[in-house]
């Protein structure tokens, strides 16, 4: 793969062009990573609305019919429902971990299979979250994709 960076103050905005014979899995993953850098969500904290970079969100969960966005140090409320966030973030390496949780795969530090076909996931900040049996297959698939991309 050849990478070229052209810097010029006269450029009005950043433009990324990918020239390839065919868009394979690696190219699609690269595009998804670029989209993560651009995507923002609105989180509410102490009555103020904050623009959050999606890459900074560790996980999302619901409690008492409210949706929360967890970053390294803060918890923000979201006006969106979990299924709306899932649809928006699916292509950006987020995955469903249970009926009430979505995890950012890029912020997973480690995973451990447990009894009952559940998995225990440790996030970058040390928090541990269970992935239910129903959603364990998606986690396994993401782990396999990550292993394949490392050895290619």
Strand content: 25-35%
**Class inferred from helices and paired strands:** alpha+beta
What is the percent of helical residues? Answer: 25-40%
Outline: globular
Q: How are the strands ordered across the major sheet? A: 5-4-3-7-6
Low-pLDDT parts are none
Describe this structure in words.
- This protein has 152 residues and is of the alpha+beta class.
- Helix content is 26%, strand content 33%.
- It has three helices and ten strands; from the N terminus they run αβββββαβββββα.
- It has helices at 25-38, 82-89, 133-150, and strands spanning 40-45, 48-53, 59-63, 66-70, 75-78, 94-98, 101-104, 108-113, 119-123, 128-131.
- Strands 5-4-3-7-6 form a five-stranded antiparallel sheet.
- It is globular, with a radius of gyration of 17 Å.
- 17% of the residues are buried.
- The model has no long low-confidence stretch (mean pLDDT 87).
